[in-house]
Amino acid sequence: MPTVWDRVKQLEGRRLQTLFQGKEFKVASVGERWLVVTPSTGKGRRVARRWIEEVAARGLDEDGLRPGRLSREFHFDRSLSYLAAIVHAITRAPR
Length: 95
Hints:
Blueprint: H1 4-9, E1 15-17, E2 24-30, E3 34-39, E4 45-48, H2 49-57, H3 67-74, H4 80-92
Antiparallel strand pairs: 1-2, 2-3, 3-4
């Protein structure tokens, strides 16, 4: 059975959209401790593996993945729109 991070690795090179604003970004690279997304600005942003795994483990619905809720519940404050889209992609896609 693939792990959360195995599913994240499958996103490398793919384009996704943020859930609530529909802004496109690319999962540029996936390392061991984080991944890098590239939004339309071209400036890469890191999303930590531990954040992705922690949020994915909760099995949140789309409403629970709203950046404001993630910030309050998990005390993350960076790249939340990308985090939400990535978790949504790996938890809602067929495995």
